[in-house]
Specification:
The structure is a single chain. The protein is an alpha+beta fold and about 400 residues long. The protein is built from ten helices and 16 strands. It has a twelve-stranded antiparallel barrel. The chain has a two-stranded antiparallel sheet with strand order 7-10. Helix 4 packs across helix 5. The longest helix has 20 residues. The chain starts with a helix and ends in a 9-residue tail after the last helix.
């Protein structure tokens, strides 16, 4: 039996084990009305941890997982790497050591990868499907739906919620779970009344704990004091501003993104972008739950308040690349390199807004960090790269879907 077959068998065993637990039927056949003591749950986890697969020599296990990670480089085959992390804690820890970040390898593996910066040398190509009836937007990994077919990997989902004075896009790791109290909650995008200013909120604080206190004002309370209707946390990470079109002149939208969670030094020579390495929505919290004593909840301030940078240094600012006017076609044009085929006011490319004193290489100044455009009815492509993450890029693209009567 090949190793991949063993991994798939273990994955099925794990699913069956936890499915029985969810159905309220434990190993001893108790009904769902019975309440199991904490010691019983701990013993069940020990059974998983002390299985025969947990006793493999660490050197052998490391070599096996390295080979699987190197050969399975695309979805759905890459789920074998996730299966290795689902066997037990020892497998999980070694898999975390082997799997590299998207910046290092260019691959997306765990949900945490969606909040880590993309690769430097090439963009990660995705597409977005819009469902008008349910106001739902889903981000998939792949070139286009026609080329990816049924093997498209769902990355993130968002649902548009209109309010009296604003619009919210609730972003989730799951396809149809948009509860802000769920572990699938990734963050949200909120607009002002005119649709000219958007704020990106992350469910997790900045990866650097030393700068966490500077990312807006927060208050820490005990977990038992948190209302079940209250989100686990909202940390403002960026603002997106669309320029007002006072004279109602015809032309493309003008937008600017202040990435308060990314320093300008990340695109300078030798610079690095913040990369989270742990998340409260991680796999460990679902399989090996921990007892959290407290959670962080952001202070719900008005969107009109200025957002302070969480870095002492200057933050990265992105601007849309200016299109050129095509006389023959009588329209504004950008070179999307074949990734966009339908003219739309929503199409854009973002580059870094650089000044002379920033000392940023010319190559970085001309590099398209994020591009978004229409290819069909309710289908759009999204290509992003370092220093943006998939979550940040998706949130920026969602702002293009909202109505902007003052900008057009």
């Amino acid at each position: 039996m090949s190793f991949k077959s063993i991994v798939r068998e273990l994955w099925g065993m794990r699913d069956n084990f936890w499915k029985k637990g969810l159905d309220g039927k434990n190993i001893n056949g108790r009904a769902r009305s019975h309440i199991a003591p904490e010691s019983y749950i701990s013993s069940s986890l020990i059974i998983v941890q002390q299985s025969k697969w947990a006793n493999l020599p660490s050197e052998l296990l490391l070599d096996i997982i390295k080979r699987v990670e190197a050969t399975e480089t695309s979805w759905p085959a890459r789920r074998d790497v996730v299966a290795c992390a689902a066997v037990c804690r020892s497998w999980r820890e070694i898999t975390k050591e082997v799997v590299r970040t998207p910046e290092q390898c260019g691959w997306l593996t765990f949900p945490l990868s969606l909040k880590q910066p993309g690769p430097r040398e090439f963009p990660i190509q995705c597409f977005i499907k819009r469902e008008r009836v349910t106001s739902t937007y889903r981000l998939y990994l792949g070139l286009t739906p026609a080329l990816s077919g049924d093997i498209s990997k769902l990355l993130l989902s968002a649902r548009k919620i209109r309010r009296a004075t604003s619009t919210d896009f609730v972003i989730s790791f799951a396809s149809d779970d948009f509860s802000r109290t769920s572990n699938n909650y990734a963050g949200k995008l909120r607009s002002n009344f005119l649709g000219t200013k958007f704020t990106i909120y992350d469910s997790q604080p900045p990866s650097d704990s030393s700068i966490q206190s500077k990312c807006r004002s927060h208050r820490r309370i005990h977990a038992k004091q948190v209302s079940p209707k209250l989100p686990a946390g909202n940390y403002s990470m960026a603002t997106i501003t669309y320029e007002l079109n006072v004279l109602r002149t015809r032309g493309p939208r003008r937008m600017q993104c202040n990435m308060d969670s990314i320093p300008l030094s990340s695109i300078q020579e030798g610079g690095t972008a913040p990369t989270p390495v742990a998340s409260s929505n991680s796999f460990d919290d679902h399989v090996f739950p921990t007892n959290r004593k407290s959670v962080v909840v952001s202070n719900p301030n008005s969107l009109n308040d200025p957002i302070e940078s969480i870095y002492n240094s200057e933050s990265l600012v992105l601007k849309n690349k200016a299109p050129r006017w095509h006389e023959q076609l009588q329209c504004w044009c950008l070179n999307f390199k074949g990734r966009v085929t339908v003219a739309s006011v929503k199409n854009f490319q973002l580059v870094a807004a650089i000044e002379a004193h920033h000392n940023v290489p010319v190559v970085e100044q001309e590099k398209v960090i994020l591009q978004f455009g229409k290819i069909g009815k309710d289908i759009f492509t999204m290509d992003y790269r370092y220093p943006l993450s998939a979550f940040q890029a998706f949130a920026i693209c969602l702002s293009s879907f909202d109505t902007k009567p003052a900008c057009e």
